[in-house]
Amino acid sequence: MHRQVQDSVQALPYVIEQQKKEGKRVRAFILRYFSGPMLRMVNRLLNASRYRGKEGQKLKQTEQMRRHLDHKKAAVKHVQAQIQAAQKAQKRRAP
Fold first, then answer.
1. Closest by CA position to 17, among listed 8, 7, 29
2. I want to staple 28 with a disulfide (CB 3.0 to 4.6 A). Which of 2, 5, 19, 88 is the partner?
3. Is the distance from CB of 19 to CB of 28 less than 8 angstroms?
4. What is residue 59's predicted lDDT score, i.e. its pLDDT?
5. Exposed (0-12), middle (13-18) or buried (19+): which is 8, by Cβ within 10 Å?
6. Which pairs with CB-CB distance under 8 Å and at least 24 residues apart come from 10-17?
7. What are 19-75's pLDDT values in tens digits?
């Protein structure tokens, strides 16, 4: 659950912008002023209980690096999939 909360807190600004672009201003407002602060508070409480002391600091650092690398791999995979899809579309168009 903690990782899901961390991911949600990290993605919150992007989700709010996306909701605004889609014209869902009420949902963006709710995310920004109600759900966002609740998520941040839950994340802070979970962090406080999990990352106590020196061992907790080491754990936090390794988890952050692992998550960073996971996100980076996912982004690279996504870009490669988009490139392949564009190449397939281009091959279909060209006789």
1. 29
2. 19
3. yes
4. 74
5. middle
6. 12/36, 12/39
7. 999 999 999 999 999 999 999 999 988 888 777 777 777 777 788 888 888 888 989
**What's CA 40's distance to the chain center, in Å?**
14
How many angstroms separate the CA atoms of 37 and 65, rounded? 25
Neighbours of 32 (CB within 10 A): 16
Q: Report the Cα 76 to chain-centroid distance in Å.
A: 15
Helix crossing, 2-21 with 36-50: angle to 10°? 160
Output the six-digit token pair for 63.
């988890």
Residues 13, 35: Cα–Cα separation, whole Å: 12
Domain range list for the chain = 1-50, 54-95
**Angle, in degrees to the nearest 10, between helices 36-50 and 53-93:** 130
Query: Is the Cβ–Cβ distance between 30 and 11 less than 8 Å?
Result: no
